[in-house]
Amino acid sequence: MVCLVYYTALLAGFATYMVAGIPNRRSMVVLDSRDLPAHFANAGVPNPNTVMNLKIALTAADRDSLEQTLFDVSTPGNALYGQHLSFEEAKAFAGPSPDTVHAVTSWLNENGITNITTTGAFDDWLAFSISVSTANSLFEADFQLFTEIGGSIQLTRTLAYSIPADLQPHINLLHPSTDFVRVSKGPKFHIPAPSSSNNTARALSATPSCNTAGITPTCLQELYGIPTTEATQLSSTLAVSGFLDEWPQTADLESFLTTFATDVASTATWTLQTLDDGSDPQSAGDAGSEANLDTQYTIGLANGVPVIFISVGENNPDGLDGFLDIMDNINGQVSPPHVLTTSYGFDESDITVVEANQLCDAYMIAGTRGVSVLFASGDGGVSGSQSQGCDNIFIPTYPSTCPFLTSVGATQGIAETAASFSSGGFSNLFFQPSYQTTAVTNYLAALGTTNAGHYSRSGRGFPDVSAQGVNVEIVNGGVTGTVDGTSCASPIFASVIALINDRLVAAGKSPLGFLNPLQVLYANPSALFDITTGDNPGCGTNGFPAKTGWDPVTGLGTPNFASLLAAAGV
C-alpha cells in the first residue's frame, strides 16, 4: 500500500531568532504537489488579505501498530480477534505525541500564529486562520482561485506546498490545500426499462416480477435469504452517511414500508445526527432520492436494527466535503455504530497521495473500533465515479480503493449479472493488500493481456462485494419510482452485515468490524453468490469482464445470508 512515511525518530532543535526578532527561514521540503485537474480552470489571484481557515493534520503516535492492530482484531484465529479498541485505546495509537504537538505549535507561534485550536477525534488537528499572503509565505505555496469547468464549485487552492524539513515527522498534511474533490451526487429518480436477466443458475431465486416490476425488500429477502425476523439488540446500530443536501423524509419512509416492507412497522424511522451545520428538513420539496434510498433500504431490510442518519452539512472545513469530518465524528464516539454505509464518492485522481492516506487511515481507525465501513464503488464503469471521458488510463474511484474498507459494486436481474455501470478496477495510489492477493492473482491470470496498460496490476482491486443496483423501488417526494446505482448496493449489503451483527451481539460476541480479511469474505468466498457474467465498459473499452471468483466488477459476489452467518460463527 502506498502510504505516508511515518518516522519514529523525533528531530530536535528550533530556529534561532535574528536581531530583528524575525525567525530564520528553516530548510523547507515539498510535502504535497499535483497538476491542475482537467475539470478545473484557474480563475485568478485571490485578495492577499482574504482570511483562510486552515488545519494541519498531526502524525499519529504509532500509526504502524494501529494498522497491525486492525488486522489482529479482524482476522479469525488471531488471539486478538474481535477485541476491538476502546476510544482511549485507539487514541493512544492514533493521537499525536506531546513532542509532535509542541514542535508544530512552536513553529506556528514563531511565525506569529497564536489563534490555534485543537480539533479531531484524537486532538490530531491544529486549526488556525491566516491571510492568503501569510499562507503563501509560510508554506511556500501559491494559493489561487479555481472554478469547476461546467460546474458551480469555486475553490481557493494551491498546486504545491512545503513545510520545514525538521517537521516532516510531525505533519501529515495541510487542509484545504491541493484537493479538488467533486463528490458524486447519487442516483437519478426514474422509471427505467425492465432489467434483463442472465441464465446463470443460482441457489436462491426470486419472484419473476422482481425482474420487471422492480427490486423491493421482498425480492432481496428471497434472492439473498435475508430473514424478516426483527433484530433484538439496540446497541448494534447501522449508520447512513448523508451529504450534498440530500435529506430523507419520514412520510416517504412510511409510504415505502407500508407498500414494500410490510414485515417492518410502518412507524419505524431513523435517529438523526448532524455535523457541519447538517439538517433534515421535512417537506416533499426537500426529498433526496439518495437519502431516501439509503434509509428505506436499511430500515426496510435490516428489520429492527437502529438506523442513524448522519447529515453532513456544507460547512465542512476538512477540504474533502465532510468525508473526514464524519469519520472524526464516528471515531470520537465512545460507542460508534457497528456499520457505516456511504453511497457517495469521487475519482481517485481528484485526491493526492497524502490526502488519500489521511482519510484512509480514518477508516482504519474505525475498523479497530469495530465499525464495518462500506462504500458504493461508483457508477462510471472503468471511467470513474460517474461516466466521463478519459484517456488510456482507467479511473479508479475513492474511497473505494482504500484497503481498510469494503467496496460494493452492483448487479442486475434476479439471476444476477454485473451492472454495466458498476465501477471497479485497480488503485493507482494503494498497493494490493495481502488479504486479496490470491483472489486478484487468479483473476489477472485469467484476464491475460486484456486492458494491458490501462490499469495498475499491483494496485488494490475493487469492489470487494456487490448487490442489486438496477431498477430498485423507492418512494421520493410522495412518488413511487426506481433508481439505479451502486448506491443501491451499499445499503443493501450493509443491512445484511447489520443483521449478522445483531445475532453476534445477542450471542455475547463482538460485531464483525473490518470485513475484508474476515473469513466471511476473502477467506471464505463461497459464502457469496459468484457473479460470472457482464462487464463495466468505459474509456473506449469493454472494461473488465466478470469471471469465476473475484473480479473488478462485482468483487467476490452477492450475499448469501445463511452462508455468511455460518462463516461469522453464529
From TrEMBL:
<dbReference type="InterPro" id="IPR000209">
    <property type="entry name" value="Peptidase_S8/S53_dom"/>
</dbReference>
<feature type="active site" description="Charge relay system">
    <location>
        <position position="290"/>
    </location>
</feature>
<dbReference type="InterPro" id="IPR050819">
    <property type="entry name" value="Tripeptidyl-peptidase_I"/>
</dbReference>
<feature type="binding site">
    <location>
        <position position="549"/>
    </location>
    <ligand>
        <name>Ca(2+)</name>
    </ligand>
</feature>
<comment type="function">
    <text>Secreted tripeptidyl-peptidase which degrades proteins at acidic pHs and is involved in virulence.</text>
</comment>
<dbReference type="GO" id="GO:0006508">
    <property type="term" value="P:proteolysis"/>
</dbReference>
<protein>
    <recommendedName>
        <fullName>tripeptidyl-peptidase II</fullName>
        <ecNumber>3.4.14.10</ecNumber>
    </recommendedName>
</protein>
<dbReference type="GO" id="GO:0004252">
    <property type="term" value="F:serine-type endopeptidase activity"/>
</dbReference>
<feature type="domain" description="Peptidase S53">
    <location>
        <begin position="214"/>
        <end position="570"/>
    </location>
</feature>
<dbReference type="Pfam" id="PF00082">
    <property type="entry name" value="Peptidase_S8"/>
</dbReference>
<keyword id="KW-0865">Zymogen</keyword>
<dbReference type="InterPro" id="IPR036852">
    <property type="entry name" value="Peptidase_S8/S53_dom_sf"/>
</dbReference>
<feature type="active site" description="Charge relay system">
    <location>
        <position position="487"/>
    </location>
</feature>
<keyword id="KW-0720">Serine protease</keyword>
<dbReference type="InterPro" id="IPR030400">
    <property type="entry name" value="Sedolisin_dom"/>
</dbReference>
<feature type="active site" description="Charge relay system">
    <location>
        <position position="294"/>
    </location>
</feature>
<feature type="binding site">
    <location>
        <position position="530"/>
    </location>
    <ligand>
        <name>Ca(2+)</name>
    </ligand>
</feature>
<feature type="binding site">
    <location>
        <position position="531"/>
    </location>
    <ligand>
        <name>Ca(2+)</name>
    </ligand>
</feature>
<dbReference type="GO" id="GO:0046872">
    <property type="term" value="F:metal ion binding"/>
</dbReference>
<dbReference type="GO" id="GO:0008240">
    <property type="term" value="F:tripeptidyl-peptidase activity"/>
</dbReference>
<keyword id="KW-0378">Hydrolase</keyword>
<dbReference type="Pfam" id="PF09286">
    <property type="entry name" value="Pro-kuma_activ"/>
</dbReference>
<dbReference type="InterPro" id="IPR015366">
    <property type="entry name" value="S53_propep"/>
</dbReference>
<dbReference type="GO" id="GO:0005576">
    <property type="term" value="C:extracellular region"/>
</dbReference>
<keyword id="KW-0479">Metal-binding</keyword>
<keyword id="KW-0645">Protease</keyword>
<keyword id="KW-0106">Calcium</keyword>
<feature type="binding site">
    <location>
        <position position="551"/>
    </location>
    <ligand>
        <name>Ca(2+)</name>
    </ligand>
</feature>
